[in-house]
Write a structure and sequence with these properties.
The chain is 26% helix and 27% strand. By secondary structure, it is an alpha+beta fold.
């Protein structure tokens, strides 16, 4: 991390933020043994330039992990570049193109990762809705508002594919459910394809699902996507009020026991009375969400040392 020479205010804010990070009890990752993965919707990241303090805080949070799926990255990548410079020379990003219409909201999805811990394997693509032939054209009957973004990575000898999505919002729960079911079908089709890149699939992002008891959660998990055991006991949501579970990390795992390490939500907000610790000049909660976010990062640590499982499979035939 290269925060450099910052003002006294930013330095004090970083110290306060580090206490909040420590409270999240995120274990350190170990090279070729464990990997810390997070999903974070950073509200309209890039639409309007963040303050210097906010950029340092965002970098400090991302730096706690090895791989972060960033949702709501906008077309302007300047602030992402500022964050990467603070993170240092080992950090990289791979990201989708923006979508210019109102449904796409000029958004991208990015994977920001530390190349010392995780290697980009080469696959980076948007998920395309299923198409049917109509006259001379192949057209989708329905489409994603914002195409989910998939990428392949490797940590040690553990290869995996990550899919990150930002599912539509709006008043129509039915339309959202249809999009979630279409995504679940797409994931299952990809998983069953004999030429898929890897059987270990991590699905994460902002699904706009209010709770795990919601029919919307049943829609995305219709083909057996599961919450990793490490996240089953997480008590509160990832919105600032901590009462909604819009963000999810789910998986189809060839080695499910590798997903039983720690997991949780990093609460950098605490409550409105604590905003001044990060921004002492005064700031409303709404303005805070445009400097930091209205979502908290959801994270999990996974075990990437799979030699034992592979040898056991050989023994068992």
């Amino acid at each position: 991390m290269n925060h450099g020479t910052v003002s006294k205010q930013i330095a004090a804010g970083l110290l306060a933020l580090q206490q909040r990070i420590e409270a999240a009890r995120i274990p350190s990752s170990k090279l070729d043994e464990t990997l810390n993965i997070a999903t974070w919707n950073i509200r309209e990241f890039g639409k309007k330039a963040r303050t210097e303090a906010a950029v340092h805080y965002i970098a400090e949070i991302i730096g706690q992990f090895d791989l972060v799926g960033v949702v709501e990255l906008r077309d302007n990548l300047s602030d992402l570049g500022r964050v990467l410079r603070i993170l240092g020379p080992y950090w990289r990003a791979v990201y989708s193109d923006m979508i210019p219409d109102a449904g796409g909201n000029r958004e991208r999805i990015a994977y920001v990762y530390d190349k010392r811990s995780v290697v980009f394997n080469g696959l980076a693509a948007e998920a395309n809705a299923p198409r049917k032939k109509k006259d001379l054209e192949y057209l989708p009957e329905k489409d994603f508002w914002r195409a989910p973004y998939i990428a392949s990575f490797r940590s040690g000898n553990f290869d995996f594919v990550v899919l990150t999505a930002h599912v539509r919002w709006g008043d129509s729960t039915e339309s959202r459910s249809e999009e979630l079911e279409m995504l679940a079908d797409w994931i299952e089709g990809r998983r069953q394809d004999k030429c898929n890149e890897d059987n270990d699939l991590i699905v994460m992002g902002d699904f706009n699902i209010p709770s795990r008891s919601s029919p919307l959660f049943k829609a995305i998990t219709k083909h057996g996507l599961q919450i990793p055991k490490a996240l089953l006991g997480v008590e509160h949501g990832s919105n600032l009020e901590k009462d909604k579970r819009y963000d999810q990390i789910l998986h189809h795992a060839a080695y499910p026991e590798n997903f039983t390490n720690a997991g949780g939500v990093l609460d950098f907000f605490l409550d409105e009375s604590r905003i001044a610790e990060l921004f002492p000049d005064g700031m409303t909660k709404t303005k805070f969400t445009y400097q930091m976010s209205d979502h908290l990062p959801l994270w999990i640590q996974i075990n990437t040392d799979i030699d034992g499982q592979q040898l056991q499979q050989i023994v068992q035939g």
